[in-house]
Amino acid sequence: GSWVFGRAFCGWICPLGTILDWIRPLAFWQKRPTVHPTNRNSRVRFYLLVILLTASFLSLQFIGWFDPLVIFNRAASALIHDLVLFDLSNLRLVPFIVSFIFLIILTLELYKPRFWCRNICPFGALISLPARFSRLNRRVSNVCTYCGECRNVCPMGAIGAEPHDTRYMDCTFCLECEAACPNEGIHFEFGQTASQKWQKDFLVKKEERVPGGFYSASAQTRDPIMTRRQAIETLITGGIGLAAAPAIALITPRNSPVRPPGALPEARFLQTCILCQECVRICPSKTLRPAFLEGGVTSIGTPILTPRQGACSFVAGCPQLCAQACPVGAIRPIAVADMKVGIARVDHKACLAWDQGEKCLVCVEACLSDAAKSINGRIIIDAEKCTGCGRCESGCPVAGSAIRVYPL
Fold first, then answer.
1. Into how many domains does the chain fold?
2. What is the reported pTM?
């Protein structure tokens, strides 16, 4: 689509970009520029894109932290569902961090229009590469008086020093320049017909062009995607990302956290989950929450089971909710009889029955599968029967729980 429509996605579809456009008028203290700015955008977005693509060989989760669609979805969940609806029981560190990132992006918009899109967004950097050759083009007719209004209102800084020139790697076709032109000399067109019709205008040398000339976007002189120096810097950046991948793997715990019932095997789960947290929102017992470092850096933001907060309800219908909420199939619908997410283990040094000889049967009474039993006053877990639902851990009276659910 970017070959045809350029970066129209960023200007018309991206929800994060839409929010940025909505809050831009709040920067009422910024005066209109009297001198046309250079409007050159940072290439940090391309370096970040290279780093994320390199890190994706280790885990796709890194991309999710900078994907504007994921950022918007998770921030909307954390801000609206948890704060506006006062569902503070599900408020955790990861949603807070995501919301904080979202608020930083909004704040940067008040500093400079589309700051995130112009300088940081790696997704925008990716689609800007084919957008360079967009078939949708910006046209400036011979009524142009070089007033510079189009450059002043362009939120992406896509209009060059000459009003007829357009940097299609940045242009989102927002139509702000068309609306701002006092002479109605700007419009947008598709196709090769217009390009061929006005191709002859470019036989004139650039320094000899007459003000107000009609320039075809497809024939405009395009700057190189990157210079040799920038290409070398990009390769170095990618090398740093590759070198960092083994180090990241070393600090990743070997044991995966307890996942929702029906989750794919760990490796496939990490590759499939898009961090949308739909399963977390729909969980009625609030036992699902986004992971932080429990499963290592590759698991940040993925859903994990926290029985201490609430047990997973292995009753008809409930285990299917998270599977139905998952939009990518990272959690599969399975029968209740096949539900088994982990195994409970007793800490003999903390258990009241084991350590102090007290007749504590809370876990035995809470267990629905008869996996927890009291034998000679000691709590024993039958690994074959245990489903890992976490009812025992949730109800344990010991601080921090003397019985915990561990992954299979």
1. 3
2. 0.63
